[in-house]
């Protein structure tokens, strides 16, 4: 699609303008296309993200985060995302938080 994701003047995806959240259907292929084609195409660094302004933080969480597995994971497998979320919330205590999953 030529108009999505949003692109900058050079034709590359405009970072921070379109976001993708992982879900169970993306993991049917073990996340292969989601973690390469989709995230790379959007210029998105991870399968989770935060949008923020002065009052709010909206956190898009990856509830299918366990790479290569549809059966769930261990606490250690979700630890990087958990640490990221806690850091975002602690770093901005004045903001209210909304969690998307």
Any idea what the radius of gyration is?
15 Å
| Beta-strand fraction estimate | 5-15%
How much is the average pLDDT?
80
Low-confidence residue ranges? none
Number of strands: 3
The biggest sheet amounts to:
3 strands, mixed
Counted by DSSP, the helix tally is: 2
The dominant shape is flat
**Strand order, biggest sheet?**
1-2-3
Helix-and-strand structural type: alpha+beta
Order of helices and strands: HEEHE
End-to-end span in angstroms? 26 Å
Helicity range = 25-40%
How would you characterize the overall build of this protein?
The chain has 101 residues and is α+β, with helices and mostly antiparallel strands. The chain is 28% helix and 14% strand. It is built from two helices and three strands. It has helices at 32-42, 75-91; strands spanning 49-52, 56-60, 96-100. It has a three-stranded mixed β-sheet with strand order 1-2-3, covered by helices on one side. β2 (56-60), α2 and β3 form a beta-alpha-beta unit. The model has no long low-confidence stretch (mean pLDDT 80).
In short:
This protein is α+β, with helices and mostly antiparallel strands and 101 residues long.
Task: Give structural attributes.
101 residues; alpha+beta; 28% helix; 3 strands; three-stranded mixed sheet; single chain; flat
């Amino acid at each position: 699609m030529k108009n999505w994701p949003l692109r900058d003047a050079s034709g590359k995806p405009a970072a921070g303008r379109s976001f993708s959240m992982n879900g169970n259907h993306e993991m049917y292929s073990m996340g292969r296309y989601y973690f390469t084609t989709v995230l790379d195409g959007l210029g998105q660094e991870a399968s989770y993200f935060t949008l923020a302004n002065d009052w709010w933080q909206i956190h898009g969480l990856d509830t299918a985060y366990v790479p290569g597995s549809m059966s769930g994971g261990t606490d250690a497998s979700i630890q990087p995302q958990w640490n990221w979320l806690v850091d975002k919330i602690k770093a901005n205590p004045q903001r209210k938080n909304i969690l998307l999953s």
